[in-house]
Amino acid sequence: MRARRYDRTGMASWAPLLRAETLALLADSLPQLVWTSDAAGTVDYYNSRLTDYGRTDSADGIRWQPLVHPDDLAGTERAWAEASEAVQPYEFEHRMLMADGTYRWHLSRALPLRDEHGTVLKWFGTATDVHERRVQAERNLETSLVLQRALLPDSLPTSSGAVLAARYHPSSDAFEVGGDWYDATIVEGGLHLVIGDVAGTGPEAAAVMGAARHCIASSLRAGRSPAAALSDTSDYLHSLGHDFVTCAVVTVAADGATIEQVSAGHLPPLLVTAGTTSFAGAAIGRPLGTDDGAVYEATRRDASDIDQIVLFTDGLVERRHEPIDDSLERLRATVADISNLGAEDLCDALLERHAADAGDDVAVLVADLRE
């Protein structure tokens, strides 16, 4: 039998077409909307799933902007511009218009194809329907927020020597609240300011937060020192298997002469005086729940020159692409710049300047000691 000889030159001429047809068939078999664009972002291809969407045609082809919900368009364009400029993967969640006139949440992603010099030749992307997951996440967030706020104090006590204000701000990234909390308790010995953060998110973190907050408050009201109250709470959480809760307690003496600080792995508070704004130095113990029989050390200092005390959780300062020392310095500079504000306005200003892009939830507690 003689082997048939194929014309390789002819086969090569057919290869691009066969590859294009194969890729088109593969794209049409996927449940996602598949698209490609040129380097500038002009879409030049959609798979057959486009018929499921409220497409808008123009003389230049199919425009994607009318497919995006008006409230999500600016964010979509911003995310695309950032990815395009940095030549990095694009990813964004937004609502897209369906053929029946409704909007459904989608996760859009794209990767750039580059030549040997790094120049972008084309973008390949998909839009995946994530509507049910997103709706469920929003329901979970609402449930967690209700639980979180139910476990936070309804109001702060009124003290003759201090004006108190506090805020809680959920994360901007996730659909789960965390375990950040604040509290304030007045006892015979003075005013206890408490700030804390439970590792994790969701209803479980909120429940642990509630347990920690109430345990600390009960110990303080029973006359235990802040250091002893943290030890009591650490032992209690350890017995429940909750092993990473940070907390700080700052106590303003009844006569206003001194403050005492105790920390369980928490970031230090800011102290505002007439001439400086600085972080309070103190011994930092292990987070609550990590050890059985944990002991905490109190640090005391003169308070006669202190105007304001600002306690906060790490969501106010931690950023993925910024060293923590730089973030803390930004916060210190902000507080120094707006320390003329009262407690309520200071809380609002801190959230506006530092919590808008927070990837974690945030709690802030401010005590204004000025007469």
Top-tier CATH class of the largest domain:
Alpha Beta
| Full CATH superfamily name of the largest domain | PPM-type phosphatase domain
What percentage of the residues does DSSP assign to strands (E)? 25-35%
Shape: elongated
Note the gap between the termini: 107 Å
Biggest beta sheet summary? 6 strands, mixed
Counted up, domains total 2
SSE series: HEEEEHEEEHEEEHHEEEEEEEHHE
CATH A-level architecture of the largest domain: 4-Layer Sandwich
Low-confidence stretches: 1-11
Count the E strands.
18
Q: Based on helices, strands and strand pairing, what is the structural class?
A: alpha+beta
Radius of gyration over C-alpha positions, nearest whole angstrom: 28 Å
Helix content: 25-40%
DSSP helix count?
A: 7
The oligomeric state of the chains shown is single chain
Mean pLDDT: 86
Walk me through this protein's architecture:
With 371 residues, the chain is α+β, with helices and mostly antiparallel strands. It has 2 domains: 8-129, PAS domain (Beta-Lactamase, 2-Layer Sandwich); 154-368, PPM-type phosphatase domain (Phosphatase 2c, domain 1). It has 7 helices and 18 strands. It has helices at residues 8-29, 70-86, 131-151, 202-221, 226-240, 324-338, 343-354; strands spanning 33-38, 43-46, 57-58, 61-62, 90-97, 103-114, 120-129, 163-169, 181-187, 190-198, 245-253, 258-264, 270-273, 277-279, 284-285, 299-302, 306-312, 362-368. Strands 9, 10, 11, 12, 15 and 16 form a 6-stranded mixed β-sheet that branches. Strand 6 and strand 7 form a beta hairpin. Helix 4 (202-221) runs antiparallel to helix 5 and helix 6 packs antiparallel against helix 7. The chain is elongated, with a radius of gyration of 28 Å. It starts with 7 loop residues before the first helix and ends with a strand. 35% of the residues are buried.
